[in-house]
Amino acid sequence: xxxxxxxxxxxxxxxxxxxxxxxxxxxxxxxxxxxxxxxxxxxxxxxxxxxxxxxxxxxxxxxxxxxxxxxxxxxxxxxxxxxxxxxxxxxxxxxxxxxxxxxxxxxxxxxxxxxxxxxxxxx
Length: 123
Known about the structure:
Elements: H1 3-15, H2 20-30, H3 35-45, E1 50-56, E2 61-67, E3 72-76, E4 79-83, E5 92-96, E6 100-107, E7 111-115, E8 120-122
Antiparallel strand pairs: 1-2, 2-6, 3-4, 3-5, 5-8, 6-7
């Protein structure tokens, strides 16, 4: 699917009356490729700032996208906690950098198997 095809599909869904979340979710489902690729293209095709957290069960994954909206996370031995603002988050709190798309995967309870957080800054 080309970028122009993605943009056309996004416009068609919006004209059909789908809400923002529905449009982004449906668009992400129609784009071929990895979850990271689909998330990045969907965020790039949307207008305006956004922060997306998408959760999948099998395997356990969290898609993290930030563009323009604030997004922070606190990491503890029990897991990751996300919020727009850093106040009140437990553990070591960091900001997700702007224009970021990443994927957290999890196995064996709360052990993080893989994370794409690369460039983070302390909140």
